């Protein structure tokens, strides 16, 4: 048996933790740079605000309905996510953190437990400990558990927990569940399914095995089996290192000079290197991309991307920042206002067991490694802004964050204040 | 800005034994006993939150302006507990006295009569956010 615990409107719910006055009121959280809506409370959803709506398009609705608007505050969301995960770990022998606001629980070996009551208890405990509302679905497979958790959101009388296991119940639910909302059915498959007149999850699960295998290949076949109640998607409680790392942002104002753009790119590169080092990998190749503002109709448009192969697999801060700046120089074109840029480490290997090439200067490598380690430890103790590379300038990303809430749980100077009078 | 997690590695630890550089091996060498302040103050790291005190209605309960209070949502509210409450749109810290008709929020400041008990009834928008477990103050 598997459970999926999904935090309801997670970022919006985090904003409410220390602002109980916002309970029952519409809340919207904006993407980096205050670009578009990335989380909405139920009240904001009923006002017609859609996921991904650009802020300027919803400004009217926001003002008319006194919607509380927040810039994203990932320090807060990350800490609240850690708390929810901690509570969940008390309920199952193995937990797979699937995303910042979702986790699978492996309940194998817990047969005999009243799973319906258990689902509700998990939800209630998360709420009590962290103030975050969580929907918990329990079912024989991960895919069905995900569907069960969605039912909790639709039907408040389930009290946040739903156990779905009787064959006839599953059939009833799948018959009215849109196939494109099933976990693992991509947008491309959804289009194919539409052409085949497959509308619901039930229709999909009734397709013959050969058809599924032929048209939707192995992932589609796994989903098909999971809908039939046969566990087919592995439980992954060990985090695999990422295969690529991307750091990108939109800027508050367009950037048109090379030094300014290079400075931003250096900051993205530093951030990417820090992620790379945390997972113990070495970069083989990186890419830098930059693009103009496509919403600005009369402005000249360009997008550029430049790949830079590294002479030696490396996780050295300086080598990678230099490579990123080099790539930035090559793609920069004067006369354009760049709105967004980013650095992607496109190819990497594990540092463990890597042998440097025969021609590498091993003394220099050793020295560089010690320097990078010293930088890591200073960053770990005093924060990444405590020590910057010259190329990073002031180390600030030119982002708009006009509505950010305090870092309530992660900075002493931002602790919530409680009036005692 | 990095989130400061309340993990053991970040926690403040006081070693009660110094290190010995050379000479006679220390008989205390294998003793790894340490005082961990976070372990003492944070029983449940998922449900423990810090607030800062702003105001003087609780001075008799040892809560002064600027103090940091530790709040644990895992602690079930009990009669006469000190708790961070939310009433009609505002946070406050008070002693919560539970009675038949609801609850009364009691201030703790004998010398200032402007702080009055606040009765809580069905007409109030009220919730107990969490129970105060520790007060941190600068000496």
Please outline what is shown here:
The complex is a heterodimer of chains A (421) and B (139). With 421 residues, chain A is α+β, with helices and mostly antiparallel strands.
Q: Would you write up a description of this structure?
A:
The complex is a heterodimer of chains A (421) and B (139). Chain A has 421 residues and is an alpha+beta fold. Chain A is 40% helix and 21% strand. Chain A folds into 3 domains: 1-163, 2-Layer Sandwich (Alpha-Beta Plaits), CATH 3.30.70; 166-239, 5' to 3' exonuclease, C-terminal subdomain (DNA polymerase, domain 1), CATH 1.10.150.20; 245-392, DNA polymerase, Y-family, little finger domain (Dna Ligase, domain 1). The longest helix of chain A is centred in the middle third of the chain and has 21 residues, at 258-278. Chain B is mostly beta strands. The two termini of chain B are 29 Å apart. Helices cover 4% and strands 39% of the residues of chain B. The model of chain B is unreliable at 1-16 (pLDDT under 50). Chain B has a 7-stranded antiparallel beta sheet with strand order 3-4-9-5-6-7-8, with no helix packed on it. Chain B contains 1 helix and 9 strands; from the N terminus they run E-E-H-E-E-E-E-E-E-E. The A-B interface holds A 20-21, 75, 78-79, 82-84, 86-87, 128-131, 379, 383-385, 407-411, 415-421 and B 1-5, 44-47, 49-58, 63, 68-69, 73-74, 84, 86, 89-93, 115, 127, 129. Strand 13 of chain A pairs parallel with strand 3 of chain B, so a sheet runs across the interface.
């Amino acid at each position: 048996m598997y459970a999926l615990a999904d935090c309801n409107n997670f970022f919006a719910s985090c904003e409410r933790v220390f602002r109980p006055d916002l309970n029952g009121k519409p809340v919207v959280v904006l993407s980096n740079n205050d670009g578009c809506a990335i989380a909405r409370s139920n009240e904001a959803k009923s006002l017609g605000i859609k996921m991904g709506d650009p802020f300027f398009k919803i400004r009217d609705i926001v003002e008319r309905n006194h919607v509380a608007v927040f810039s994203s505050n990932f320090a807060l969301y990350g800490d609240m996510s850690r708390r929810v995960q901690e509570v969940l770990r008390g309920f199952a022998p193995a937990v797979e953190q699937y995303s910042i606001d979702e986790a699978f629980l492996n309940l194998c070996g817990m047969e005999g437990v009243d799973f319906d009551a258990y689902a509700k208890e998990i939800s209630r405990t998360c709420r009590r400990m962290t103030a975050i509302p969580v929907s918990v679905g329990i079912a024989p497979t991960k895919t069905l558990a995900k569907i069960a958790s969605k039912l909790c959101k639709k039907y408040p009388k389930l009290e946040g927990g739903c156990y779905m296991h009787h064959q006839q119940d599953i059939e009833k639910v799948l018959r009215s569940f849109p196939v494109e909302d099933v976990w693992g059915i991509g947008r491309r498959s959804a289009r194919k399914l539409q052409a085949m007149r497959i509308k619901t999850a039930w229709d999909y699960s009734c397709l013959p095995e050969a058809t599924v295998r032929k048209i939707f290949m192995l992932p589609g076949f796994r989903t098909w089996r999971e809908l039939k109640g046969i566990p087919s998607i592995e439980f992954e409680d060990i985090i695999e290192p990422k295969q690529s790392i991307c750091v990108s942002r939109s800027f508050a104002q367009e950037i048109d000079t090379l030094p300014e753009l290079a400075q931003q790119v250096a900051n993205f590169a530093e951030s990417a290197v820090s992620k790379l080092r945390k997972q113990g990998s070495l970069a083989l190749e990186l890419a830098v991309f930059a693009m103009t503002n496509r919403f600005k109709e009369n402005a000249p448009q360009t997008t550029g991307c430049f790949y830079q192969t590294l002479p030696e697999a490396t996780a050295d801060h300086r080598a990678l920042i230099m490579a990123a700046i080099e790539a930035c120089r090559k793609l920069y074109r004067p006369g354009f206002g760049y709105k967004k840029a980013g650095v992607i480490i496109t190819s990497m290997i594990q540092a463990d067991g890597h042998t440097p090439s025969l021609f590498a200067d091993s003394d220099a490598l050793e020295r560089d490694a010690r320097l990078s380690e010293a930088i890591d430890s200073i960053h770990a103790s005093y924060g990444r802004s405590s020590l910057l590379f010259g190329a990073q300038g002031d180390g600030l990303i030119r982002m708009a964050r006009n509505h950010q809430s305090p870092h309530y749980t992660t900075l002493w100077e931002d602790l919530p204040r409680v009036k005692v009078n | 800005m990095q989130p400061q997690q309340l993990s053991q590695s970040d926690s403040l630890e006081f070693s009660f034994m110094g290190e010995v550089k050379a000479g006679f091996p220390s008989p205390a060498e294998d003793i790894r006993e340490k005082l961990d302040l976070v372990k003492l103050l944070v029983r449940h790291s998922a449900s423990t939150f810090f607030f800062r005190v702003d105001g003087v209605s609780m001075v008799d309960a040892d809560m002064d302006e600027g103090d940091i209070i530790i709040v644990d949502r895992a602690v079930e509210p009990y009669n006469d507990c000190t708790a961070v409450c939310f009433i009609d749109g505002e946070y406050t810290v008070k002693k919560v006295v539970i009675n038949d008709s609801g609850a009364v929020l009691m201030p703790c400041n004998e010398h200032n009569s402007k702080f009055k008990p606040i009765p809580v009834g069905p007409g109030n928008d009220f919730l107990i956010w969490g129970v105060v477990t520790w007060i941190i103050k600068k000496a």
